[in-house]
Amino acid sequence: MTSNEKRLKLTTEDLLLIKSGELIAKTEELNESNDSLLASNDLLKLKVEELNESKDAVLESDNNLGLVIKELAETNEKFAKVNKELAAVNKELALANEQIKQNGNMQIEFINIASHELRTPIQPILGLTQIILSKIKDTEQIELLNTVIRNAKRLKQLTDDVFDVTRIESRSLNFNKEQFDLNEQIKIAINDIKNQISIRYNNNAVKLSFEEGNSIFIKADKIRIYEVISNLLKNAIKFTREGTISITTEEKKKKNKTGKGGEVIVKIKDTGIGMPSNILPNLFSKFATGSTFKRGIGLGLFISKSIIEAHGGKIWAQNNTDGKGATFAFNLPLSK
Fold first, then answer.
1. Does residue 132 form part of some domain?
2. Predicted pLDDT at 263
3. Tens digit of pLDDT for each residue in 119-166?
4. pTM check: above 0.85
5. How many domains are there within the chain?
6. Are residues 249 and 316 in the same domain?
7. Which H or E element spans position 63?
8. In a shared domain, residues 182 and 60
9. Contact between 334 and 261 (Cβ < 8 Å)
10. What single-letter DSSP state applies at residue 274?
11. What is the chain's Cα-based Rg?
12. 120 & 183 share domain
C-alpha cells in the first residue's frame, strides 16, 4: 500500500468517525426532541382533561340554568296568578268601599231627616205645655206638666246631640268664631244651669261656685263654647248629690315682649261620686257609659271634645286626689 492510499484510508476513517459522531449527536437531539414531545403530549393530555372537565361543568351549568329558567317561569306564572287574584280583591274592596260610602251618606241623610222630624213636634210641645202651665193652679197638674217639659227638653237635647255627632263625623260642623269674654259665657251657663239644680234639689244641696276675675278674651264660636261649659256643668250635677261644683279659670300668657298669646284653662270640680277607673280611658268617646254612668247615652263629652279640639285646645278629666268627686278641664288659646 502506497503512502497516498494510507492517507486516503485515514481520511475515510476519520470521516466515518466524524459522521458517526454527528449521527450520535443527531440521535441525542432526536431523543431530546422525543422527550420534549412526550412532555408536550402529557401537557396536551392535561389540557384535554381540563377541557373535558370544563365541558362537563358547562353542561352541568346549562342544566342548572335550564332548571333556574324553568323555576323562574313557574314563579312568574304564580306571580301572574296572584296579581290577577289581587286585582280581583282590589276590585271587590273598591266596590265594598263605595257601598260603605253610599251607606254612610244614606245614614247621615236619614239621621238629618230624623233629627229634623223630631225637632218639629218637640218645640210646640214645649211651647204649648208652658202656656198651659202658666194658666193652671193645681199642684198635681203642675208637677205632671213639669215632667212633660223636662222630658221634652231631654228629647230635644238628645236630638241636637245626635245631629251634632253626625255633622262631626261627616266633618260638616261649622264654627262662627268671634272674640268674646269667656267669663261672661261661664256666668250665663251657670245661671241657666241653676234652674236645673232647683228642680232636682229642693233644699239647695248642690251649690255652684265661680270666682270671676278679669275679662278673658278668646276668639271662638261663642255658642259652641257655651255648649261645652253647659255639658260639663250638667255632667257634674248628675253625679253630685250634695256639695259644691266650683268653676275656675286660669290665664297663662306667653312670656314675650308683646305679652300676647298663651292659653286659658277652665276647670269644673265637683264633690260627687267620681268616675270608675274603667271609664276614664274612653271617657270622651261616643257612648261612654258604665254602671254609674247610666244617665244619657254618652254623647255630650264626645261632642265637647270635638268642639274644643276644633278650636286648637284639649280636654281632660281625672278623679280628685281627696277621693271626692272629679275635675273636668279644657284649655283654649287666648286671643292674639
1. no
2. 92
3. 678 888 888 888 888 888 888 888 888 888 888 887 887 788 777 887
4. no
5. 2
6. yes
7. helix 3-135
8. no
9. yes
10. -
11. 51
12. no
pLDDT tens for each residue of 282-319 = 888 876 655 444 455 578 899 999 999 999 999 999 99
Task: Say whether pLDDT at 250 is over 80.
Answer: yes
CA dist., res. 222 & res. 176, Å (int): 8
Contacts (Cβ under 8 Å, ≥6 apart) of 220: 175, 177, 178, 180, 311, 332
Same domain? For 182 and 109 the reply is no
Owning domain of residue 192 = 178-333
The vertex-207 CA angle with 201 and 209, nearest 5°, equals 155
Kindly state whether residues 111 and 224 are assigned to the same domain: no
d(CA 24, CA 20): 6
What does the alpha-carbon distance between residue 275 and residue 90 come to, in Å, rounded to a whole number? 45
Residues paired with 249 in a beta bridge:
266
Only one residue has cell 408536550, namely 40
| pLDDT of 219 above 90 | yes
- Residue 220 forms part of a structural domain: yes
Kindly state whether residue 226 falls inside one of the protein's structural domains.
Answer: yes
Is position 80 within any domain?
A: yes
